[in-house]
Design goal:
Blueprint (H helix, E strand, L loop, with lengths): L1 H10 L6 H19 L3 H23 L6 H30 L1 H21 L12 H23 L5 H7 L3 H14 L8 H15 L7 H21 L9 H6 L5 H31 L1
Amino acid sequence: METRNRSALLGGLGRPSLVGLTAVLALVALTALALAAGLWKVTVIAWVAFAAMAGFAPFGARAAGTNDAYRLVWGYGLAAGAMVTSAAVFLLPQAIGLDPRVGGFGVAAGLLVGYGAHTIGHRLTHLDTPFDDTAAQLSAHALSAGVIIGLVYATMPELGLLLGLAIVSHKGPAGYAAARRLRKAGKPVTVLLLPAAGVGLTAIPAALVAPPAVPAIQGAIFGFAAGVFLHVAMDFLPRCEQGSEVGEVAALSQDAHALLDRLRTHAVLSTLLGGVAVFVAWIGVSA
C-alpha cells in the first residue's frame, strides 16, 4: 500500500524537465565549491530551500482539483508571517544602523524592484514555455533572493541561520501551490526544480564576493534585502477573496462564500503564528 501511494504521488509529476535537472546538477557543483570556501550557512539555507519546494511539490501535484483551501491559507500565512517578522527584526535594524538614509532608500528600492519584477514577470505567461505564471515568478524570486541572501551573509558572516531559514520558509507552500497549478495545466511539475535550486544557484556565487566594508554600501544591501523580502512576504499573505488563488480553490466548495469567511480567520491566525514562531525561535537562540 505504501509503495502504491508513493508511486501515485510521484506519478503526477509528469515528464522530467531538462531545465530542472540541470539546475540540480549545478547546485551540487556549487555546493562543493561553497563547502571548500567554508560557506556552510549559505549552503544549509540553499538546500533547505530546495528540500522545502521539491518536497512539497509532489503533494501539490496530487492535490490538483481538490478543495485544499485550508492548506493553502495556513502554508502561505505561516510563511508570510515568518518572513515579515524576520525582515523587520534582522534586516531593517541593520540597514538603518549602518546608514539611516541610504538604508531607507535601499528598503524603498527593494519594495519597488520587487513589485516591478513581479508585475513584468507576468509577461512570461504569454510565451510558449513549460512554465506557468507562478513557476516563472518563483524562479525570478528564487534567483534574485539568492543573490541577496549571499550578499547579506558575505557582509555579516556572524548572522545566524534563523534569518535565512525564515526567509526561505515560503518555499514549501509556494512549491505546493505551483505544483498544483502546473498539474492542472498539464505541464511537468519537475520544472519547479529550477526555482527550488534557484536560491543556491545565486546565493553561493554572491557569498563568494566580499562587498566593500563601507557602511553606506552595506546599509544599501541590507535595506534592499529588507525591501525585497517584505514585498515577497506581502505577496504571500493569504488573500481570501473571489479571484484570488485561495478563492479559486474555495470555489470548488458548494458554499464558497461561507468558506471564504471562515478562511479569513485562518489567514489572520496563520500569519500571527508565523511571526510568533520567529519570535520564539529568536528568544531560544538569544537565551
